[in-house]
## 1
Amino acid sequence: MHPTNRSSRILQPVKLWFVYLSLFVALGLEYIPTGRTPGLPDWVALVLAFWCVREPLAIGMGAGFAFGLLMDVGLGAAMGQHALAYVVLAYLANALARRVLWFPAWQQALHVLPLLLLAQAIMVLVRLLAGAEFPGWAYFLSSLGSALLWTPLSFLLLLPQYQPDERDDNRPI
Amino acid sequence: MPLVGHQPPPIFRRGPAPLARLFVFVALCLALLVADLRFRYLEVLRNALSVVTYPLQMAASTPADVVRNATRYFGTLVDVQLENADLRRLQLDAGERLLRFEQLEQENLHLRELLQMSERVQTKSIAADILYNAPDPFARKVILDRGTQQGVEAGLAVVDANGVIGQVTRVHPVQSEVTLLTDRNQSIPVSVVRNGVRGVLYGVGRGMLEMRHVLAEVDIQPGDRLVTSGLDGIFVPGLPVATVTRVDRDQDAFARIECEPLAAIERSVQVLVIGRAAYPPPPPPPEPAGGR
């Protein structure tokens, strides 16, 4: 059962170091050289959107800006391109946080999909204004791939918070 | 603030309002973008931040290295035999050309001495493999497996067996980034082999090139070969670049010249990084205005 605001399950409080660790792991996944395969998810945008929805008080535009800059440096993109997209993404995800968490996981993914598409559209706009070539419509498949991963990813990222309060009460022996 | 709900009560202070923070961050990003794309000021910041990203990048590229080495290792015997036969044939061909080339080079040196011309440009070259396409989908760039440690510098030309494929634009310790000729922001000064007409070749996207700044009445025909002119002081002169495919003189004062690259720009794997061993002397200072 996916924990939403409707469910009665109470999670452990989030650990901030785990949030940043997951963002850095996403950054590492992003750096894997995959050429121009369309439809690969934007891991950092996805994880950032997840934490912005889940923990709007802890993660927001500052993290979006910092990880956007790291993406720009690592991918050789224009400085500020990913930062701008992620700042807007984080703002909107923070704003949506109270509403989205009332829905089941697949509907949460539908809420996040337009935000991810908007982030990509911002990047395309910025680069086209700077005189680059349009990368083709397949570029936007990446957001669809990200949205499909929302449910498994939210299970994975909430795993540490599923742990019971007192381990000894739940041991088989 | 309808988007974020109610204003927080004063006991839960959260700093500036989200919308204000958004505007600050967006303004900061736009400033960064302008400084980087328009003025190229941010290489220092990029280098500083790459201290963080570089170990992650190295770790992330390891699985790709493993896959590439595995495919090479498990390549079938038949493929290797075919490739071997091909290479032997090529080597015979090249050997014969090399014999003639040595003789011609001697002759050229001799003639240049007789005419008291300066020596031809000395070059240095570094062999490299193309590792993968750069991840930025908006630019046509590739990553090479040689960097500053092997002597690669920004600005050097990169060629494959048939011609120029691009220019080194950014150098890391053991890798470097090459902007291909077909990138929209890349240009290269060229001249026509047949008559020495000079121009500048620009990438126009879709794998095509266009030669600009050539007047409409200048003698250029489809089929002409273009080589680097070396006038920029960076490229080695005489490297083959492209052939002219179409010339359109109807538009205005300048001809519209479409060209096709000679090299397999988007497909080559083994390349050579070529540069001048020594840079040309700086141009003489302008004469003082009151001199004559």
## 2
Amino acid sequence: MKSNDIILQTMTNVVLFIVLIFSIFIFFNGHHEPGGGFIGGLMTSSALVLLLLAYDLETVQRILPIDFKIVAAIGLLIAIGTGMGSFLFGEPFLSQTYDYYTFFVLGELELATALLFDIGVYLVVIGVTLTIIQTIGEDK
Amino acid sequence: MFTALHFAIIAPFIAAIFVPILYKLFSRIHTGWFVLTVPTILFLYFLQYLPITANKETVTAVFDWIPSLGIHFTAYIDGLGLLFALLITGIGILVVLYSIYYLSKERESLHTFYTFLLMFMGAMLGVVLSDNLIVLYMFWEITSLSSFLLISYWYEREKSIYGALKSMIITVMGGFSMLVGFVLLYTMTGTFSIQETIAASSDIVSHHLFLPAMLTILLGALTKSAQFPFHIWLPDAMEAPTPVSAYLHSATMVKAGIYLVARLSPVFAISGEWFWLIAGFGITTLFWGSFSAVRQTDLKGILAFSTVSQLGMILSMLGVGAAALHFDSLDLENNVFVGATTAALFHLINHATFKGSLFMMVGIVDHETGTRDIRKLGGLMTIMPITFTIAVIGSFSMAGLPPFNGFLSKEMFFTAMVEITKFQLFNVDTYGVMFPAIAWVASIFTFIYSMVLVFKTFNGKFKPEKLDVKPHEAPFGMLLSPIILVSLVIVFGFFPNILSYTVIEPAMASILPSLLQEGEQFYVDIYFWHDWTPALYMTIGVISVGLFLYLGMKKWVGIYRLFPDNVSFNTLYDQAIVKGERLSEKIISSHMTGFIKDYLLYIFSFITAALVFTLFHKGAFVVETQDLAPISIYEVILAVVLIASVLTVMFTKSRLKAIIGLGVVGYTIALFFVIFRAPDLALTQLIIETVSVALFLLCFYHLPQIAKSLETIRFQLGNFIISLAVGTTITLIGLTANSNRLFESISGFFIENSYNEAGGKNMVNVILVDFRGFDTMLEILVLGIAAFGIFTMIKLRLEGKEQL
């Protein structure tokens, strides 16, 4: 489906980045405010879906030559890997911990292992959503 | 603790991981050379336990696996376990060596072969060295699995797949039944440990579950050891490469059933049923196997039935050996039934040597002539002299001729069969006479097929016109393993007593522990000359009648035609498979229509029925109105919008409107979340709605053209009732859930702990990634599976109308 929707395409070019940045913000924000891997991942995928709607599948694949199946697989590996990481410290599967560190410029920040797990969730959600949408969209 | 012994058991599995890597890295070296090191090292490792078990000591190493269920990975070495471990690794060395020459590194995918083979080796070691029944069961099923994989190694052949499936179905069925038996044992004794079960055996003999446990476990052992009538899988398993047949289907895996019988003898052997079942199945199989072997024209077919028959023979000896338990104050030297157990173990070793060499011999013939059909073979004696020699020694030993080891164990077998007729218990004095009779007749057939095996292949007229290739002697490497095995045949024939107190006697102590006092040992002395005993007359009879029948085979071979082809256990199996498939297809296609509306109908009806039943059965339906918050104007507005958009979806004639209507429903629900102060849920709902509307638009293209028929929406009473019921039920559940406060809300815990314990202020997210991280992990796993499922279903769609 070749579309030639100037207004939508121009809008998308701008909005895409706003949504993407916001989704990343929301992802990192998840520990203390509404957000997190699930929502962040969904928002990133919705940004990409917007791109898909504005342009066509081939164009998007040219811009983003990413195999989203692999993204989903990597996400799963990260999630399971962080779970197993706790074995190294003699803790049960998926134990999480956190601590506070001071950073240059940024000041004191909290770092939680849960964030690593959340990255896995984030990637899986993006991978899954876009795999499904691309597969169904490509099917003619 | 995880000891070296545990490591020895799982070492083949670890090695199996590296096989594909080595195969890739060193493609010029035959992968078998790397694999060869594993059984060699393990064989040497297990040898060092010989002095320990010879002193009647045992080694136990416990590694806690699932302690809460009583499942420990307990490695246990005693005489019996060690005998098998040495057999597995020892034959393993020879088989791997043989396979290096048998399997071409250019044409075959060696890495899969050796991966499966190592997997089998580890599993088999696990079976014989585990003291825990559940761990034993696990390894047992892995042997079935690896056997399945190895039989179907040449998977492009239809017969390989057929044979693999058949062996899998029969052995796994038996294995499953065995698991039931183990659980029954557990309910009686409260332990999965074999040694503890044996210690408790005197208490459970009169238990009402004793017999069921015995029968179910025996079903596992009999199917695995290819006993009549379950033997039908073994001939079809011969589609596997010959090294596999030599290893799994004659020397080791099929003896797992025998191992289990021997191992559990101390538990069950005291009962009369055990004696009759083991000895009865054994002797029947012995006869049927040898009788069927004579009619085979495929060399491997002969060997397969011969293996079936020999396994039956070993089993019958174990059964007779159980009779020894009924003599309390016996002097061990004169107890002939103890001798039956000795004979069983001795023949077990002998069988591995001569049958292994014969399988390898057949493999060589097949390799060098391109056929295994005895109707095409003949006159190879001068062309393949070494192979011929191997065949002669192996077959003569199998036929029970002196001076080979088979003669010794056959004599002991006859002795046991003659003596059992004098046994006074379990009605043996009435029916016992059939034991020596059947044994004798079966041995005649054994003699005949042994002669067929050698002389139809190597004697007679050479028929080069029927062969595709010009035969010649095999390379030395290929001959090496069978030569070693036939040397053992001769060595064990002349010096059988090198085995008696090192291997056989300690193993007997494991099978018949109750007969031994502290410090005592069984008397094992195997020798050639027994005086003019009945056994010797029987052997002479076997040879003379056998020779007579072999020479006149053309005259009587017609009796096999008396058996109609369509009445056999094979047909029974095939019919059961076909009928079973047809029946299940009928049942499934009666409700699996492929229409999602039907599936939703089932799901919704079930949910409604189950929930309503529970709700009223438990008397849980209450509506409390005290604690409710007032309904605000926003909620009313949202509800109105919700209802309006639902009605739009239902009655609109345009599909686009319906999609938008659905979207509105979703967004309204998101707004509800906002009102109820659940920002996370609201955010999620908003984005999900957006994405799914987009997805709908993409799918728009694919939806079938029923849109036009939407104009006349028909009222369907059934659907209406069900949707009404679902709505009502869910509402009722909601009201009830709100009114019943059985427990204190769990949210208090999260409020207290999410910041202190997990360092997060967003409780929802802390629950997702920390407190209930396991849920999330499995959820994303499901998501991933769904995505890959959709991908494969759409991308790899079957062309045309293939049947799924």
